[in-house]
């Protein structure tokens, strides 16, 4: 883990229903002969003080990773904000860190400087939160969150029924860190079977740092 930013827990959000993939766990689909989640763990572990998987259902399917599996505690598949809250609560109970970084668990090409650049953008702008962008498009799920925000998030999610990350984060000063989208988008995520083919092509031809 780098020393230039505060200890940060990586939250791998795998709680989606994967309807466009035909059901099942998107992060366990294979790219380059390995589950997408393998690529995510490999890219995030060096940047983080620890990793947590947010997933619902039987946690045994992730047992081989040896990581904590934290389910949503808001019922009814309330979306990624529920996963963010679950991990914030998990980290707060264990007093592991004051920051978490969230990533979608189906993004196999995450940049090795993600955590450093999100912290740098937040500090430079004096913001409370930070999220990633590429090619002029923001990625609200790829974000940096202070553990101290969890009660605000709980009120929005449970009390107000908020479900969209960008509507929630718009309530606070938010910094954006931009990455290029060429020669490929480092935040590419595999939502459909066709996306798996694209990911295979990127893996075969791109130079991954």
Automatic annotation (TrEMBL):
Which GO cellular component term is one of those annotated? cytoplasm
- Please name the Pfam families in this protein's record: NTP_transf_3 (PF12804)
Q: What class of enzyme is it?
A: transferase
State where the protein is found. Answer: Cytoplasm
Binding positions for GTP per the UniProt entry: 13-15, 26, 54, 72, 106
Family matches, as Gene3D superfamilies: Spore Coat Polysaccharide Biosynthesis Protein SpsA, Chain A (3.90.550.10)
Q: Residues that bind Mg(2+), according to the entry?
A: 106
Cite the MobA-like NTP transferase domain residue spans from the record. Answer: 10-167
A molecular-function term among this protein's GO annotations: metal ion binding
Cofactor(s) required for function per UniProt: Mg(2+)
> Where mainly found?
cytoplasm
What reactions does this protein catalyze? Answer: Mo-molybdopterin + GTP + H(+) = Mo-molybdopterin guanine dinucleotide + diphosphate
Enzyme Commission number(s):
2.7.7.77
Q: Enumerate the Gene Ontology biological process terms.
A: bis(molybdopterin guanine dinucleotide)molybdenum biosynthetic process
Q: Which keywords appear in this protein's UniProt record, sorted alphabetically?
A: Cytoplasm, GTP-binding, Magnesium, Metal-binding, Molybdenum cofactor biosynthesis, Nucleotide-binding, Nucleotidyltransferase, Transferase
Output the PANTHER family linked to this UniProt entry. MOLYBDENUM COFACTOR GUANYLYLTRANSFERASE
Share the domain note from the entry. Answer: The N-terminal domain determines nucleotide recognition and specific binding, while the C-terminal domain determines the specific binding to the target protein.
Q: What does this protein do?
A: Transfers a GMP moiety from GTP to Mo-molybdopterin (Mo-MPT) cofactor (Moco or molybdenum cofactor) to form Mo-molybdopterin guanine dinucleotide (Mo-MGD) cofactor.
What family, per the record?
Answer: Belongs to the MobA family.
Its quaternary organisation is:
Monomer.
Protein name (Swiss-Prot/TrEMBL): Molybdenum cofactor guanylyltransferase
Please report the organism this UniProt entry assigns to the protein. Answer: Chelatococcus composti
Taxonomy-wise, where does this protein's organism fall, top ranks first? Bacteria, Pseudomonadati, Pseudomonadota, Alphaproteobacteria, Hyphomicrobiales
Q: Which gene encodes it?
A: mobA
């Amino acid at each position: 883990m780098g020393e230039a930013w505060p200890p940060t827990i990586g939250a791998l959000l795998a709680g989606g229903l994967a309807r466009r993939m035909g059901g099942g766990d998107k992060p366990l689909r294979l790219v380059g002969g390995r589950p997408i989640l393998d690529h995510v763990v490999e890219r995030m572990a060096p940047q983080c003080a620890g990793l947590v998987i947010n997933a619902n259902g039987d946690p045994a399917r992730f047992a081989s990773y040896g990581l904590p599996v934290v389910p949503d505690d808001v019922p009814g598949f309330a979306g990624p904000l529920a996963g963010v809250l679950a991990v914030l609560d998990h980290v707060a109970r264990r007093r592991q860190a004051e920051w978490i970084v969230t990533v979608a668990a189906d993004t196999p090409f995450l940049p090795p400087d993600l955590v450093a650049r999100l912290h740098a953008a937040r500090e430079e702008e004096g913001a409370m939160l930070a999220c990633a962008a590429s090619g002029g498009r923001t990625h609200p799920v790829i974000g940096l969150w202070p553990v101290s925000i969890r009660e605000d998030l709980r009120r929005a999610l449970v009390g107000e029924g908020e479900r969209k990350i960008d509507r929630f984060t718009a309530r606070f000063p938010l910094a954006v860190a931009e990455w290029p989208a060429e020669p490929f988008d480092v935040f590419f995520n595999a939502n459909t079977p066709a996306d798996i083919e694209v990911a295979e092509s990127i893996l075969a031809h791109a130079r991954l740092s």
